[in-house]
């Protein structure tokens, strides 16, 4: 899993948590969830943030797969919901994804 490191900031401001990424977890997700090689899944490199995804790539968090049981490719329902509301998958919180999955299951 990712480790947390507290980074000091200006006086009066609260601490900022920075996640240290775990290459082993990335590889476990890619293998465990059977990402096809054609998807060219990439992990963050030293100094990159989730906003540094190259053109044509998206950022997905380990929690989506581990805590929410998210799978790729996404269901047609999930894609339709995101399109209808104008959201990108990377804009959803973990609980937002859980609610969409629950709604799909109930329907």
In short:
By secondary structure, the chain is of the alpha+beta class. The chain has helices at 23-32, 62-66, 76-85, 94-106, and strands spanning 3-7, 16-20.
Number of helices: 4
Task: Write down the overall mean pLDDT.
Answer: 79
Please report the distance between the alpha carbons of the first and last residues: 34 Å
**Amount of beta strand:** 5-15%
Give the tally of structural domains.
1
Extended strand count: 2
Radius of gyration over C-alpha positions, nearest whole angstrom = 16 Å
Low-pLDDT segments: none
Characterization of the model:
Helices cover 36% and strands 9% of the residues. With 107 residues, the protein is of the alpha+beta class. It has one domain (3-106). The chain has a two-stranded antiparallel sheet with strand order 1-2. A hairpin with an 8-residue loop joins strand 1 and strand 2. The chain is globular.
